[in-house]
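ok trying again, last paste got cut off:
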Amino acid sequence: MTNVNTNVPSRWQQFLESDFFYFFKRDKVAMFSFAVFLSFVLAAVFAPFIAPSDPYDLASIDIMDSELPPNWLESGDERFLLGTDNQGRDILSTILYGLRISLMIGLGAVALQLLLGIVIGLSAGYFGGRIDSFLMRIADVQLSFSTMMVAIIVSAIFKASFGNDFYSEYAILMLVVIIGIAEWPQYARTIRASVLAEKKKEYVEAAQVMGFKAPRIMFRHILPNCLSPILVICTVQVANAIMSEAALSFLGLGMPVDKPSLGSLISIGFTYIFSGAWWITAFPGIVLVALVLVINLLGDWLRDVFNPKIYKG
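nice, full thing came through this time. structure:
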């Protein structure tokens, strides 16, 4: 009998042997950026365990501890490594919990953008004609407005319709919806362009001849071949969504004061920066800049890897 080799490599082994991982190992900037981003994610996930205190627990907050500087400065308190804010909350703890909220909003908004963009882009590119024209004109109209303008208008509508109390209670969900609605056209236009190229290929025509329904052809056959540019956009849009949330919170249209995100922490501290309490704004601002920077660096690296004309390894 002939011995047949049944040692099929696992998906993890295939990934370790892939060109993607090979290029990743050779790019020190990508490795460093990924390590920093992973550190932020782990810090956000395990915030309740590693934070010195719970900034949402009013019983643990003493207003007499407000505006204390970092512990290495004069009049600093050893209990508060990075100082305290205007309510007496530990800055390090609020950053960890705020990082969690910012990442949740950023990832959730991108998931909603991706869902809307995929459905609309696939439909426009595959069906064409009037459906394509109608959907793309909607995208063009939305793109004629800035993201912040759309987000501010939608946020104001939500607050006027449901009230400030309802908005504050469901602020995370509201911001995910607001930012998601504001940014979907970029996905839709990118996917539409890829679908227009893919739907003329033989495998799509074969699927149509076999009698497959349009949704199956769109999602199971065409979509997997359009994911490379979408992955790059997703990476960059996570950073944009986090920045949009920070801007809305800074303008008072984002997270409430009692549930601070990085943006609302910066907004809170900005009032006190000229009185000398610079740490309330500085440390959340540094974390926000670092988070957005490493995500953008990863996005740039992914763009180059998926474009062989640019990437040289």
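cool. The mean pLDDT is 78. The chain has 14 helices and no strands.
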